[in-house]
Specification:
The structure is a single chain. The chain has one helix at 47-59; strands at residues 2-3, 6-18, 22-27, 38-40, 67-79, 82-94, 100-104, 115-122. It is mostly beta strands. The chain has a single domain, classed as Nucleoside Triphosphate Pyrophosphohydrolase. Strands 1, 2, 3, 4, 5, 6, 7 and 8 form an 8-stranded mixed beta sheet that branches. A hairpin with a 3-residue loop joins strand 2 (6-18) and strand 3 (22-27). The protein starts with a strand and ends in a 19-residue tail after the last strand.
Length: 141
């Protein structure tokens, strides 16, 4: 998708919560802080399908509870050359007993084979996330 010659990339972002009080986050190589599972929506996918795929590929979680769309925005990562994203944020719940784990990313994306270190943070998080991924955490309260 492009507007006025500037490409827009569709992204699916997952806020995964446990016990309604904790949010799943990860740290991985070459990242500027905490992140949540997210990735590109493929040409033949809907954001809902993409977020479920990204959760499995990036975290290893195969089963999540109710999935709810929270919001969609347009986010600019850089102005020159322009790189813009249409980000679809969803919330999923899990009953995950592990407090920490390492997952090797699967799928066809650039992060395939990277290891992400997962843990839970209390809501609301104290630290800012990389890439503005905490912009809508307040919608979880």
């Amino acid at each position: 998708m492009a507007c006025n010659g500037v490409p827009y990339v569709q992204k699916a972002c997952a806020y995964i919560t446990r016990n309604e009080r904790e949010l799943l986050v990860f740290e991985g190589p070459d990242h500027d802080g905490l992140q949540v599972p997210k990735g590109t929506v493929e040409a033949d996918e809907q954001p809902r399908t993409a977020v479920l795929r990204e959760i499995a590929e990036e975290s290893g979680l195969g089963a999540v509870g109710a999935l709810a769309h929270l919001t969609t925005d347009t986010w600019t990562r850089r102005r020159s050359p322009p790189k813009r994203y249409v980000r679809h944020f969803s919330r999923a719940t899990v009953h995950e007993p592990c407090n920490r784990w390492t997952h090797t990313v699967t799928g066809d994306g650039d992060e395939n084979g990277h290891e992400f270190e997962y843990s839970w943070v209390d809501l609301p998080p104290r630290d800012e996330f990389a890439l503005g991924l905490d912009d809508y955490v307040h919608l979880l309260e």
